[in-house]
Task: structure prediction
Amino acid sequence: MLAARYHGKHDLRVEEVREPDLEADEVLVDLQAASLCGSDVNYLTGKTEPASDPLTLGHEGAGVVREVGETVRSVAVGDRVAIHYIRSCGICRPCSRGYDNRCRNRDSIGHHVDGTFAEYIAVPERALMALPDDVSFAEGSIAGCAVATGYHAVQRADLAPGDAVVVFGAGGVGLHAVLWATHVGAGTVIAVDLEDEQLAAAAEYGADLTVNPSTDDAQAAILEATDDWGADAAIECSGSAVAMETAIDAIGGQNGYESGTVVGVGIQTSDISLDFGDVREGQFRVVGDHRRSDLEEILTLLEREQVDVSPSITHEIDLEEIQSGIDLMLDGNERIGRIVVNTTG
Result:
């Protein structure tokens, strides 16, 4: 089968590999769609590194069950499924409390073990979710990371109806944070990004105000939009240390006690500083991976047509063209939402 394999910085090869063997608790999925994420780009540019090398990249995907292991009971051959990239044990303390993202024994598809940029993938039964018939494979694929990470971030922000929220970084995760903030009833949603095209997309997703800090004073705009109270929540999705500093400022009002919640989502690769007084009566939360239950809820909302994530899919390419998708994300010359990879061969 074909797979897109990481062999080090700037070295992605589409090559023939053998189909994976199945363990008793695993399922072989005939992948129909996968999607590119910023973390894939980070690996290839050397910003971060996967845990294995060589490695089939990709952690977002959806497809059809082709074969099941002897102990598998929840899915059958022919079922449509979406991939949950966290491989958890299901029995440790965090798992038993519904936090499989904090599993002591977890690893991740596309980081520790081979991922979704392939024609087939073997995954544990627990890492699959039923994909409703009315949800496309492409939508099921992007639901597994960008959509779900934005959803989880908004959940962790504890937004109440009418709250003001600022989303920093209007990329794949940030756009969906805007979408979910609007969905839960935020009163004012502000998007901050350096690219006007991404801000235009954020407005389409429901942002009431968009701010480009290269031309506007972001903090002044946020205070004006919130009657000088500052934001109830700031969700930082870009991974920029400067954006994180602005997010911390964004939740402050007129004194050291008027403070909201900062949710850090974007991977910070440089040090950031936080003074006690910045969030004295507020909160600072670092949010990584979503939970299995988050993905389940999202797929239900998609099935009921309560949200529409299809506009997020701006490009579709074949597996053999995956490098062109990476180049698109790096160039930044056009609006990039989610790039879906056709993995059917």
Summary: The domain at 2-145+290-342 is CATH 3.90.180.10 (Quinone Oxidoreductase; Chain A, domain 1). The chain is about 25% helix and 25% strand.
